[in-house]
């Protein structure tokens, strides 16, 4: 079940709206895809780790290695598939974040669980875990075979209208939000989730939704930023 893990009054004011609304959401708030009935999907979790940096509230993102079998080279939240011994989705999210970015779980306070979301291309049923980075620790790409880069990205930069547009894949019905920020091109599942969180958290600013770019062209344009 999704919803708050802590009293919303115990988190910073800037994070409180997301904690308060977490129990009222369902998957339709984030995606049109629901896990298919009677079909295999693997459980996974991602950590949406938000802290306060020099530019205000920020979120931890990583770029996946170009050699990975799925979502290669894409910007993502730390996360991955559930393993035996994980303490539920929170345990999966924390373990994966530590393995990928070296974040110290002792400084991370999970504050809410968001609805499970289905990612058709990888057939993962992904549960986002929202957390407050109470005591930030150094982070880095722990294993170059999995993670190419790690960064804390300010929410104000993600919300900057100059950094936002949409991408479309010709020949398909795919169209979704995208960001070009801090040398990263963010699209797909991660961009969709960030877009909704910016709106729900009260950070969103008016941006040009009519700016729709060809996905393949955008990938080529921003390729230098992700190498």
Automatic annotation (TrEMBL):
Q: Mind telling me which SUPFAM superfamilies this protein's record contains?
A: Nudix
Extract the CDD domains matched here. Answer: NUDIX_CoAse_Nudt7
Cofactor(s) it depends on: Mg(2+); Mn(2+)
Has the keyword Transmembrane been applied to this entry? yes
A Pfam family the protein falls into:
NUDIX
| Domain called Nudix hydrolase: residue spans | 39-179
| UniProt keywords, alphabetically | Hydrolase, Magnesium, Manganese, Membrane, Metal-binding, Transmembrane, Transmembrane helix
InterPro entries registered for this protein in UniProt = CoAse, NUDIX_hydrolase-like_dom_sf, NUDIX_hydrolase_dom
GO MF term list: coenzyme A diphosphatase activity; metal ion binding
The transmembrane residues are: 184-203
Against Gene3D superfamilies, the record matches this protein to: Nucleoside Triphosphate Pyrophosphohydrolase
Q: Where is the signal peptide?
A: none
Q: What is this protein called?
A: CoA pyrophosphatase
């Amino acid at each position: 079940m999704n919803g708050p893990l802590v009293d919303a009054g115990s988190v910073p004011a800037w994070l409180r709206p997301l904690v308060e609304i977490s129990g009222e959401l369902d998957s339709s708030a984030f995606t049109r895809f629901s896990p298919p009935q009677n079909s295999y999907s693997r459980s996974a979790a991602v950590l949406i780790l938000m802290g306060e940096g020099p530019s205000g509230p920020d979120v931890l993102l990583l770029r996946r290695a170009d050699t990975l079998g799925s979502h290669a080279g894409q910007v993502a939240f730390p996360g991955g598939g559930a393993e035996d011994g994980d303490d539920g989705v929170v345990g999966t999210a924390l373990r994966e974040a530590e393995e990928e970015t070296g974040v110290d779980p002792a400084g991370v306070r999970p504050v809410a669980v968001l609805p499970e979301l289905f990612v058709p291309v990888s057939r993962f049923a992904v549960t986002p875990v929202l957390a407050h980075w109470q005591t930030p620790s150094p982070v880095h790409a722990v294993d170059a075979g999995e993670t190419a880069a790690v960064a804390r990205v300010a929410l104000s930069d993600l919300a900057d209208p100059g950094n936002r547009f949409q991408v479309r894949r010709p020949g398909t019905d795919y169209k979704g939000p995208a960001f070009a920020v801090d040398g990263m091109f963010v699209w797909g599942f991660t961009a969709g989730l960030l877009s909704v969180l910016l709106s729900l958290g009260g950070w969103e600013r008016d941006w040009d939704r009519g700016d729709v770019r060809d996905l393949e062209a955008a990938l080529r344009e921003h390729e230098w930023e992700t190498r």
